[in-house]
Design a protein that fits this description.
Layout (H helix, E strand, L loop, with lengths): L50 H4 L7 H9 L8 H6 L4 E7 L11 H11 L5 E8 L2 E10 L2 H6 L24 E6 L1 H10 L7 E6 L8 H11 L6 E6 L4 E6 L4 E5 L5 H4 L20 E4 L8 E5 L2 H8 L5 E5 L2 E2 L3 H12 L6 H14 L2 E2 H22 L4 H4 L2 H7 L8
Parallel strand pairs: 2-4, 4-5, 5-9
Antiparallel strand pairs: 1-10, 1-11, 2-3, 6-7, 7-8, 9-10, 12-13
Helix pairs in contact: 10-12
Length: 410
């Protein structure tokens, strides 16, 4: 897709040249989304001119984005599309030759490297860590494989990825691969037709529960035995948080043993009001939530997504998605436990974790468990904190999922 040929006029701003006259908002100033701002970076660029149409936390245009990006909206009567979005293929995979130091086997990094090596793109929008702090994100337009590899490993904090759009006009970049999470992708898709690009590919990460840097410190201090040495972590399908430390050792903590009273309010308000867990606007999504343990979960949404997968498919050990168990009772019980900030003693958390690991949801059913849990939590949070915006902020697919459960009264 080129800037002159947008796939759908529904995402175009009324004045597609407004950014030529606009200026970025000053650092530290109040953002249009106020407390719901996810710091996606758009307001740090001249494309702030379109923030009213682009910001996921001011208004939702999920159907229009899906139609523009994929040629159609998700089928709400198809259970997998209801949960995971528009798809052409859904599979699990891992790199046969894992990338050293990658968070898992390195599929995302490998796609970025191959996109540059093959000339598919001129640059990759990715996020490296600050030299001063391993969890402080620094968005870059990577021009070399070495720069892409230096950005491996997730940074689980709010990140202004779109800030680097300000560099595009004078960069010589005409073909871009953007790696990002849902709120960033929604804003990027909204302004896509105004960017000085001939082609844009979007590699999406599933995303939930980001925090500020201070919030991350609170989480690590509460959950890990050695917070100062954690390199990365992930909430995994075995219902445990897996921490990797600088010396290569791993630490696991059962979900059910977290200090919920301390952590209940640590997540960013933007994440507590988000319903794009599975990154509906990306061409290709790579995560873990719908896979069995040790594998990655991939969703190809359109031909551009398949082209990205083509770059590395011959290097992957591929298997079909699977599903096992029934999530529904666990979700309903979890809604009440989270709302009451229940904290189990660690010995009981280990027992519950052992049982759930062996008999609980797996594969796609685990992914649906995670979506159900977060959508119901977020709907309740919105209702209590931003009641006037609940109905217009909930996409149709989220409404249908949430309606399956009983939420506590406000």
């Amino acid at each position: 897709m080129t800037a002159a040929e947008p796939s759908s006029p529904s995402l175009l701003p009324a004045d597609a040249r407004a950014h030529l006259r606009a200026r970025p908002l000053p650092p530290g100033g109040v953002r249009p989304a106020k407390d719901l701002c996810s710091d996606c970076g758009l307001c740090d660029t001249r494309w702030v001119a379109y923030v009213r149409q682009a910001c996921a936390f001011l208004d939702q245009h999920m159907d229009a984005m899906e139609r523009a990006s994929h040629g159609r909206t998700r089928d709400l009567d198809d259970e997998n599309e209801l949960y995971f979005g528009v798809q052409r293929r859904m599979l699990t995979a891992r790199l046969r030759a894992p990338i050293d130091g990658a968070q898992w086997t390195g599929i995302v990094s490998r796609i970025g490297v191959r996109a540059l090596e093959t000339g598919l793109v001129d640059a990759v929008l990715c996020v490296r860590a600050s030299p001063e702090d391993r969890f402080t994100p620094v968005p870059i337009l990577a021009r070399t494989p070495e720069e892409v590899l230096a950005a491996r490993v997730n940074k689980p904090t709010l990140s202004p990825n779109l800030k680097v759009l300000e560099e595009l006009p004078d960069s010589g970049i005409r073909r871009l691969l953007a790696i990002g999470v849902g709120c960033q992708v929604q804003a990027l898709r909204a302004v896509e037709a105004t960017l000085p690009l001939e082609a844009l590919y979007v590699l999406g990460l599933p995303c939930v529960d980001n925090v500020s840097r201070e919030g991350l410190r609170t989480f690590l201090n509460s959950a890990s035995r050695s917070p100062q040495t954690v390199v990365h972590y992930e909430f995994m399908q075995d219902f445990r948080i897996h921490f990797r430390h600088a010396d290569g050792t791993e630490e696991t903590v059962p979900f059910f043993g977290l200090d919920t009273p301390t952590l209940k309010d640590v997540f960013a308000p933007s994440c507590l009001s988000c319903f794009d867990y599975t990154n509906a606007g990306a061409d290709l999504v790579v995560g873990y939530m719908g896979a069995t343990f040790g594998r990655q979960w991939l969703v190809v949404r359109n031909p551009r997504g398949q082209r990205l997968l083509d770059l590395v498919e011959s290097e992957l050990d591929i298997a079909p998605v699977t599903s096992r168990g029934d999530r529904r009772q666990a979700v309903q019980q979890g809604i009440d436990a989270y709302d009451k900030a229940v904290r189990l003693p660690m010995w009981l958390a280990e027992v519950v974790g052992w049982f759930v690991e062996r008999f609980g949801p797996r594969g796609l059913e685990y992914g649906k468990f995670s979506i159900d849990s977060h959508f119901t939590r977020n709907a309740l949070w919105l209702r209590r904190n931003h009641g006037a915006m609940v109905e217009r902020h909930l996409p149709a697919f989220a409404q249908r999922i949430i309606a399956r459960y009983r939420l506590p009264s406000s």
